Amino acid sequence: MKNMTLFNIAKACGGQLSGGQGTEAAVTGVVLDSRLVQEGNLFIATRGEKADGHSFIPQVAEKGAAGVVCEEVPEAEIPYILVKDSFQALKDIAAFYRQQLSIPVVGITGSVGKTSTKEFIAAVLGEKYRVLKTEGNYNNEVGLPLTVLRIREEHQAAVLEMGISDFGEMHRLSAVARPDICVLTNIGQCHLENLGSREGILKAKTEIFDFMQDDGFVCVNGDDDMLAAIDTVKGKKPFRFGADPANRVYADGIENRGLLGSKAAIHVEDDAFTVEIPLPGEHMVYNALAAVCVGSLLGVGKEEMKSGIRHLQAVKGRSNVIQLPAGILIDDCYNANPVSMKAAIDLLQLAPQRKVAVLGDMFELGEGEIAMHAEVGKYAMSRGTDVLVCIGGLSRHMYQGAKETISKNAVYYFPDKQSFL
């Protein structure tokens, strides 16, 4: 880890370095979980709801940790950096480390499709570069810094998912990531409880531009009405992708292959090529377009882009089609908002068998949560869902919305998972 000595780390996070020699030796990694500490690592002791990392400092010292970042003087004999806030120190340390790196960093945000878009972009770039990408749900103010701190000399590009729920969060994430390319998937109805409106969501998401590199690029969904209104960022026009031929990258000739995915002709300025998209749903075409947009900016050839997209595999909990003896299970349960729910319902309609939707509560929707749940219930019925099962307190409104339709298909409501099971 370039320039990551205890001395430099203490300076970066404004901490007081004490307790031993070896302050010029580079640490080999940074971790918050004491169970993952290896010799030469830096352990950051944080206080959580269930455990206090400070109580594990003696164990990490025995494991050969190079030092610890902590909020109180440890009892163990180990070099330590004393700080006021360990979580803030984590972000400061990651921001310092990011500035030592020269590889291109892609930052991805939006209301829906961040993870799938991240997977598409990483797959396309992976045909040309050694790529580090966000794993799991490491997209917040703890996960993102830890992901940045996983970048090593062998990596040639990084693809970072950046998720928020309130104003100011993206500003802080951007200060750590300092993206070279910013990708915005769409502006939907997530986190309305904190952000108030789609305009508020746009304002919060576009904080990603605050620390974008001066010579960086912006890629946006040009078919999204809110994102289409972005004219310039740091004096440059954004690169747009979508179905509209006015976009720099667009798709036409889309062939829906049901649960097997789709085929489409993708146009990049004066060039065009056909791609096979293995994940089902029209929204996956947009994810592929975003990947092509980024890939073209980073010099990935069209054959490499086609290969990366064709070999992509579904992520657990996101449009993951699972063949079972009794039928087909579509696992799309990771997150929920009106846009993603409707996309999942559309995906369900591609199945040839009887269509059963098991839906749960959508959170952080603000004052309109009742109407939005009812809208999803009505939408499920309008799309021909044979059986709709609504689970959770808020999903009662989804159930009621479905029952208000003319459809004679079966609709059930359960207040919680226990009563359902």
Polypeptide structure, described:
The chain has 421 residues and is α/β, with parallel strands linked by helices. It is built from 15 helices and 19 strands. The protein has helices at residues 6-13, 57-62, 86-98, 114-125, 143-148, 169-177, 192-195, 198-205, 225-228, 282-297, 302-310, 338-348, 369-382, 395-403, 417-420; strands at 16-18, 29-31, 41-44, 67-70, 80-82, 105-109, 131-133, 157-161, 181-184, 217-221, 239-242, 249-256, 262-268, 271-277, 320-324, 327-331, 356-360, 387-391, 410-414. α3 packs across α6 (169-177), α4 crosses α11 (302-310) and α12 (338-348) packs parallel to α13 (369-382). It is globular, with a radius of gyration of 23 Å. The model has no long low-confidence stretch (mean pLDDT 90).
